[in-house]
Amino acid sequence: MIDYQEILDGIASNCLTATEKGKIATYIPELSKVDDSKFGIHLVDNSKNNYSAGDSDELFSIQSISKVLSLGQAMSLVGEDLWKRVDVEPSGDPFNHLSLLEMENGIPRNPLINAGAIVVADILISNLENPKLEFLNYVRELTNDNSINFDIEVAKSEKETGYRNYAAANLLKSYGNLKNDVETVLDFYFHQCSLKMSCSQLTKAFYPFMNKGVCQQGKTFLTVRQEKRINALMLTCGFYDEAGEFAFEVGLPGKSGVGGGIVALLPGKYCVATWAPGLNAKGNSKLGMEALEKLTTATAQSIF
Ligand code: GLN
Predict the structure, then answer these.
(1) 100 vs 188, which has greater pLDDT?
(2) Is 189 in the active site?
(3) Which of 43, 163, 202, 280 could form a disulfide with 272, with the two C-beta atoms 3.0–4.6 Å apart?
(4) C-alpha 114 – ligand 1 centre gap (Å)
(5) DSSP string, 104-162
């Protein structure tokens, strides 16, 4: 039997005393206020046993981790039609790059880079009556936790400085791959990215992605095929131009956010979330990646 608690305690004590922590994202001014000494980790296994260490119940801005949740909701609403507007190839580029989008006529490489997530946001807006509220309710239902909310200050802060996302949305619009106005779509996108959650809440939200689409309360959110596809996308695209490195070091599908969070999962076995606000040069949590490498090495478990 693997002693997950002992492994998490060891990881947390290393990370909480680490001196090389990476750099906090400052391009969204509100995120620069976060304390870079934080570290949390939470793991839930397939029998719903929970293990945690450090600041695992503290709320943080989940940012791009939300792209998996919006994708899950959009896949349930529109099914295969989604793939007419977004591709499924890794980009090998940073999350906010624009050049491929122009070269490929407004079809984003995948739904986990910004341009792809902006198209997914557009699809949700076209298919929901009250998009922000219904997306929030979807996340609350996945997690069975009605306390989850947007961080309005973070959404506002990103809107004021989101020049590259405005550029991406305008390019998409010029290619006819955005049906709603740029302002409406980005307002939704900035809100979804601003969701405030803890490591422990994130493992609940991602439980269906490791459990054939079924959440901890037994409700089915995705088909087995949809779950397979979301995991394939997380593995190949979840860390942008560091997806290869994450697969190489950690060996799990996962998704990062510039708030310093990472969620990763071992299908059928466990779901784990880490939070350490300092980022590496590719915009992924430095200590979070190291922590997950230690986890899969110590447990000798990965998808490979
Ligand atoms: N909201 C952020 C942005 O669009 C998300 C980026 C990220 O977490 N990688 O720039």
Answers:
(1) 188
(2) yes
(3) 43
(4) 7
(5) TTT--S-TTSHHHHHHHHHHHHHH-SSHHHHHHHHHHHHHT-TT-B--HHHHHHHHHH-
Domain 4-298: which CATH number of 3.30.420.40, 3.40.190.10, 3.40.710.10, 3.40.50.1000: 3.40.710.10
Residue 181's SS3 state is coil
Is residue 258 annotated as a catalytic residue, yes or no?
Answer: yes
Active site residue 47: no
**Tokens 């807006």 — which residue?**
125
pLDDT in tens, 85-130: 999 999 988 888 898 899 899 999 999 999 999 999 999 999 999 9
Residue 193 near ligand 1, beta carbon < 6 Å:
yes
The tens digit of pLDDT for each residue in 11-33 reads 999 999 999 999 999 999 999 99
For a pocket test of ligand 1, which of 69, 96, 280 has the largest count of ligand atoms closer than 8 A to its C-beta?
96
